[in-house]
Amino acid sequence: MIKPFFKENAGWYATYLGVVFLFFLNFWLYHLPLVYFANALALNLVVLVVISLWRYFLFRKKMLALAHFVYDSELEDFTSPSDLAYRTAIAKLRHAANRKELDATSQKHNLESLIKMWAHQMKVPLSAISLMAQTNQLTPEETKRQVLRLENYLDTLLNYVKFNQHQDDFRFEKVSARKVVAEVVKKYRTACLAKNLSVTITGDTTFKTDRKWLSFALSQIFDNAVKYSHNNAQIRITITETQVTVSDDGIGILEEDLPRLFDEGFTGFNGHEHQKATGLGLYMTKQVLDKLDFSIKVTSRIAKGTDVTISSKQRP
Known about the structure:
It is a single chain. This protein has 2 domains: about 1-70; about 140-310, 2-Layer Sandwich (Heat Shock Protein 90). It starts with a helix and ends with a strand. The protein is of the alpha+beta class. The radius of gyration is 36 Å and the shape is elongated. It has 10 helices and 7 strands. The chain has helices at about 1-10, 10-30, 35-70, 80-135, 140-165, 175-185, 190-195, 210-225, 270-275, 280-290; strands at about 170-175, 200, 205-210, 235-240, 245-250, 295-300, 305-310. The longest helix is centred in the middle third of the chain and has 54 residues, at about 80-135.
């Protein structure tokens, strides 16, 4: 530990030697008796050794404390301005590390809860397929519908994990809103036929955005419209220069649920009542649209239907 001590204090010892040399030079140039210089130097060396031993003791104590300290209180003996600054920096680093660890633990807990919830949700279509197979009521159309539900649940889960790990996975290009909407509607064709829903698409525009993630967001919105629409109803998709609106005449959303629709894990009254919601679709939709520079607005009335509008924040 002696070598690190001299390395840290090398500047001071170099300064001391420089001052000694200047004093010697003055004595020599002015032909002063060097015996006085020697006496003064001896006294200074004694003082230097004593101070060095004291500083080495403090240095060693500090190094040992830093090498083995666990709690910040163990550094309270070091009160110089630089030591206080170091202690403050250490406290900030510890706070940041604790917060990061807490976030990681929370994220892990949320992911575990999500997987458990998803496992429960995926049992529903699997149980339906199993029951139909056991009762010889398994039809191609119903099988496709249940498989589509499974695919949607799995896609949402995988996209959720991917989005949380790689939030910069975006490739912006000019995209036709009508083409993206048409692809989404085609994807849900079986579900629409099962409920005899008619879908109309009006208008078109071009957005500079990420096609894949915009399709994901619109899929979540359209999926909700299909879920909560009555049989033989209509879903209207209206595209303007800066907006895409998905309207249905379904069961609607309670007014008190509207402010919390985009909270993670929130299912609301409809989700509990109809056991169709996972509480993640609209949360992810909001997160994705924020990254794509879109806003989302939901208006609804019970038994009257719901309008979901996404608006580009970019200037047309």
